[in-house]
Specification:
- There is one protein chain.
- This protein has 306 residues and is of the alpha/beta class.
- Helices cover 42% and strands 14% of the residues.
- Strands 1, 2, 4, 5, 7, 8, 9 and 10 form an eight-stranded mixed beta sheet that branches. The chain has a two-stranded parallel ribbon with strand order 3-6.
- Helix 1 (19-29) packs across helix 11 and helix 2 (42-51) crosses helix 3.
Length: 306
C-alpha cells in the first residue's frame, strides 16, 4: 500500500513556536515525517529547519537562550519601519540557511507572508529560503517589511495563521495542524469602570532619561519596549498581543472552513510571546501534544492507504 502524503501546517505564535520543535521530533521518532511543510511566522522557521536537516541546530540554539541573550539579539532601531532592524537575527539565519533555495529542498515547503497594502496572502515557494523566512515572521511594527519581487511583505499570520489550505493545495492527503493559541484566548476580562482600574498618575515615562548615563538609558528603553512588572505593558507587548488576538480570530475561522485531519495543540498558553528563554518548556509541551495524536495519525494513514 502506498503511504499517503502527510502535510503539516505550523502556526505562528512567537516564543510559543519553540513547541514546533518538540512536535516535529516526536513525529520523526514515530516514523511519521511530514512530506509537505507549510509554515507561518516562527512556524515557517521551524519548518525550514526540519526540511533542511537543521532541526537539532535550532533546538540547540533555542535551548541556549537566556533573557539576556534574547535582548542581545534585538537590535533596536528607531529610524526605519520596524522597531528591530533584524540584522543580528538575519546574520544567524544566513550562517545556517543561506545556501538553500526553496525549490531545491528535498520536501515541499512554503512560507506564508502577507503583502503590505493589499493584504494578499503570498505563498513563498521559490527563491531564497532566508528571505522567505524573514518575510514570513516580519511582525508589523517590530521587524521591517521585506521586499520580494517588488512586493513589500509582512507576517503571514495576519491572513493565514495556520496554513492548512497550503498543505491541501500542494497535494497532502493527511493534514496535521499545529495550533499554538488553542489555550491562550478567552482568558481576558472587561473593565467596566475605567476610573476605578486606572493607574495613578505619575511622572512622564521619559523624565528619568534627562541627564542619565548610557546604562540607565538602555534600562529605560528596555522598560518602554517590554513594559514593567505590574505596570502598563510595553510597546512590543501591546503590538504582539494585538496581532495575537487577530491571529487567533482568523485561525478559528479558517480552521472551521477548512479543518485539518489532526490538530496538535501544545499547552503553551502560560508562555509569553517574548519568553524565548522558555524553549525547554515549550518543546516539552510540543512533544507531549504530538505523542497524544500518534495513534490517530497512524489510523488515518491506514484509512487513506486502503
Amino acid at each position: 500500500m502506498a503511504r499517503p502524503i502527510i502535510g503539516i501546517a505550523l502556526g505562528g505564535g512567537a516564543a510559543r513556536g519553540w513547541a514546533h520543535i518538540g512536535v516535529l521530533k516526536a513525529l520523526i521518532e514515530a516514523g511519521l515525517e511530514p512530506d509537505i511543510v507549510a509554515g507561518t511566522s516562527i512556524g515557517a522557521l521551524a519548518g525550514a529547519c526540519y526540511v533542511t536537516g537543521r532541526l537539532d541546530a535550532l533546538e540547540d540554539f533555542a535551548s541556549s537562550l537566556t533573557r539576556r541573550r534574547v535582548f542581545g539579539f534585538l537590535d533596536i532601531n528607531f529610524t526605519g519601519s520596524g522597531l528591530i532592524s533584524g540584522q543580528r537575527l538575519n546574520s544567524r539565519l544566513e550562517s545556517h540557511l543561506q545556501d538553500f533555495s526553496i525549490e531545491g529542498l528535498s520536501r515541499k515547503f512554503v512560507a506564508v507572508a502577507t503583502e503590505l497594502g493589499t493584504g494578499h496572502e503570498v505563498w513563498l515557494n521559490k527563491g531564497s529560503l532566508v528571505n522567505a523566512l524573514r518575510a514570513s515572521f516580519a511582525l508589523p511594527g517590530i521587524f521591517r517589511p521585506v521586499k520580494i519581487n517588488g512586493r513589500w511583505l509582512i507576517d503571514g499570520a495576519l491572513v493565514n495563521p495556520i496554513p492548512v489550505s497550503v498543505c491541501r493545495a500542494l497535494g497532502a492527503r493527511i493534514v496535521i495542524a499545529v495550533n499554538l493559541n488553542n489555550d491562550v484566548i478567552g482568558k481576558g476580562g472587561i473593565i467596566h469602570d475605567q476610573e476605578v482600574f486606572a493607574e495613578p498618575a505619575g511622572p512622564p515615562e521619559d523624565a528619568p532619561l534627562r541627564g542619565t548615563n548610557g546604562r540607565a538609558a538602555i534600562h529605560l528603553l528596555h522598560r518602554q519596549i517590554f513594559g514593567r512588572r505590574g505596570g502598563a505593558p510595553g510597546i512590543s507587548a501591546v503590538m504582539m498581543d494585538a496581532i495575537n488576538i487577530t491571529q487567533d480570530r482568523i485561525a478559528r475561522s479558517r480552521l472551521a472552513g477548512d479543518p485539518p485531519d489532526v490538530i496538535i495543540a501544545p499547552k503553551v498558553g502560560p508562555i509569553g510571546l517574548f519568553d524565548f528563554h522558555r524553549a525547554g518548556e515549550a518543546m516539552a509541551q510540543g512533544t507531549a501534544a504530538a505523542e497524544k495524536q500518534i495513534d490517530e495519525i497512524r489510523s488515518l494513514m491506514g484509512v487513506f492507504a486502503a
